[in-house]
């Protein structure tokens, strides 16, 4: 194998190794600030897969929480304050179900409609 081929093969594996080590160090030294970890590793964490994965998780959680808040506000406006158990039940729904609920609630005329819809979703 020529030198160029060896470099081409080893470049991706080097990046994978760096990302694995970065992930391990990130968890092992969780008390470090981002700038301290970057200085120690000699890299920019924003360029790592770990950072991108965490950022994506944050986006997903943010979208889910925003949808929960919107659905709660819509239901409260339409039917008044919901019970704590009903709020807890709605808060735990997966994002795609919350999105379905945000559309379905436009047709609800009473809390009974909401309860029926939630019962159907459970089954």
Automatic annotation (TrEMBL):
Superkingdom of origin: Bacteria
Residues annotated as domain DUF4351: 60-118
A Pfam family per the record: DUF2887
Name assigned to this protein: DUF4351 domain-containing protein
Organism placement in taxonomy: Bacteria, Bacillati, Cyanobacteriota, Cyanophyceae, Nostocales
């Amino acid at each position: 194998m020529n030198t160029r081929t060896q470099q081409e093969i080893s470049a991706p594996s080097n990046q994978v190794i760096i990302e694995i080590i970065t992930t391990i160090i990130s968890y092992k030294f969780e008390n470090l600030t981002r700038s301290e970890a970057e200085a120690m590793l000699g890299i920019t964490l924003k360029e790592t897969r770990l950072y991108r994965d965490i950022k994506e998780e944050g986006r997903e959680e943010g979208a889910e929480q925003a949808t929960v808040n919107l659905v709660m506000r819509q239901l409260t406006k339409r039917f008044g304050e919901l019970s704590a158990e009903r709020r807890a039940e709605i808060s735990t729904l997966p994002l795609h179900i919350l999105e379905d609920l945000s559309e379905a609630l436009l047709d609800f005329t009473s809390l009974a409609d909401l309860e029926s819809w939630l019962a159907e979703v459970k089954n």
